[in-house]
Design brief:
This is D-xylose 1-dehydrogenase. Helices cover 44% and strands 14% of the residues. It has eight helices and seven strands; from the N terminus they run βαβαβαβαβαβαααβ. Bound molecules: nicotinamide-adenine-dinucleotide.
Length: 263
C-alpha cells in the first residue's frame, strides 16, 4: 500500500531530537523524502545515514535567514521541490516572570519560535506554489493557549504562532497552500526535561509526574510521546486534512479541558 506521503518532499526543522525526530521517522516511513534541519550536526549526520537516500540533513539555525534560504533551496536541489514544511524547532526558556525577563531574552525566544517559522514560510511558499500547493505546520503549544504552562516569552511566542498561522493561511490560500498550528501538551522530550528540571528526556519520569498529579488535570494520564505529535503532524501534512487550514490542532491528552472538579 502506498504511504500517505508518497511522492512528497518535506522539510522538518528541529529534526535531530524529540518531536522533530519522531516526525522524520514517520514521514519517511510514509514515503516522503525529507530535509532534516537542525543545529546538531552529529545527530543529523546519523539520521541521514539511517535513512540513506530518503533523508538529507541540512544544518539550519532558524534564527538565520541565509540558512533558512539554503534549507529550502536544498529541498529543490536534492529532491526536486517542496510540498510540506514542519516548522518545529524550538527551545525551552527559564521560568522568568514579566519582571525578570530582559529585552534581549524576549527577542531571542521570539527569533527562534516566531521569526524562524515566519522566514520558513516566506522561503517555502514560492517552492510550494511551483508544485501547485502545499502544507505548512507551525508548532505552537498548550502554553500558547493558556497561562500556567510556560514562561511569559515562550507562551507569548507560541500564541503568536497561532495567529501567524491564521494570517498566512488566508494569504496563501489562493496558492493552495494550507497553514495550521499544532499545539502539543506535555511531551517527554529534552525541552520538557529542561523546563521542569528533569535531568534528561524520559517518558518514565513524565509518566510518573502525570500519574502523581495528572489524573486530576489530564484526562488521559500518560506521558505524551514524540510520536503522538508526529502522528498529528502527519495528518496536517497529508491530503487527509485537505479541508483544514488556518486553525490549530490541540494534542494534549485533554490537559486543557479544565480542572477535574469542573467536569
Ligand atoms: P527537543 O529539544 O527534543 O527538540 C528541539 C529541536 O530543535 C532540537 O533538536 C534542537 O537542536 C532544535 N533547535 C533548537 N534551536 C534551534 C535553532 N535555532 N535552529 C534549528 N534547530 C534548533 O524538544 P521538542 O519537545 O521535540 O520540541 C519541538 C517543538 O515542540 C518546539 O517548538 C517546542 O516548543 C514544542 N513543544 C514541546 C512540548 C513538550 O512538552 N516537549 C510542548 C509543547 C510544544
Amino acid at each position: 500500500m502506498a504511504g500517505r506521503l508518497e511522492g512528497k518532499v518535506a522539510i522538518i526543522t528541529g529534526a535531530a531530537s524529540g518531536i522533530g525526530l519522531g516526525a522524520v521517522e514517520l514521514f519517511a516511513g510514509e514515503g516522503a523524502r525529507v530535509i532534516a534541519a537542525d543545529i546538531q550536526d552529529e545527530k543529523g549526520a546519523r539520521l541521514q545515514e539511517r535513512f540513506e537516500g530518503r533523508v538529507r540533513y541540512v544544518r539550519c539555525d532558524v534564527t538565520r535567514e541565509d540558512e533558512i534560504a539554503a534549507m529550502t533551496a536544498a529541498a529543490a536541489s536534492e529532491f526536486g521541490g517542496l510540498d510540506i514544511l514542519f516548522n518545529n524547532a524550538g527551545i525551552s526558556d527559564r521560568m522568568l516572570t514579566v519582571e525578570e525577563i530582559t529585552a534581549e531574552g524576549w527577542d531571542w525566544i521570539f527569533s527562534i519560535l516566531v521569526r524562524g517559522p515566519m522566514l520558513g514560510i516566506k522561503h517555502a511558499a514560492p517552492l510550494m506554489r511551483e508544485r501547485g500547493g502545499g502544507s505548512i505546520i507551525n508548532t505552537s503549544s498548550v502554553a500558547g493557549l493558556q497561562a500556567g504552562f510556560g514562561p511569559i516569552a515562550y507562551s507569548s511566542a507560541k500564541a503568536a504562532v497561532i495567529q501567524m498561522s491564521r494570517v498566512a493561511a488566508a494569504q496563501l490560500s489562493p496558492q493552495k497552500i494550507r497553514v495550521n498550528a499544532l499545539c502539543p501538551g506535555l511531551i517527554a522530550t529534552s525541552i520538557f526535561g529542561a523546563s521542569f528540571g528533569l535531568p534528561r528526556e524520559t517518558a518514565d519520569k513524565l509518566a510518573a509526574m502525570i500519574a502523581a498529579t495528572g489524573p486530576k488535570v489530564q484526562p488521559i494520564p500518560k506521558a505524551g510521546l514524540p510520536e503522538d505529535i508526529a502522528k498529528a503532524a502527519l495528518f496536517l501534512a497529508s491530503d487527509d486534512s485537505e479541508f483544514v487550514t488556518g486553525t490549530y490542532l490541540l494534542v494534549d491528552g485533554g490537559l486543557t479541558v479544565g480542572p477535574r472538579s469542573a467536569w
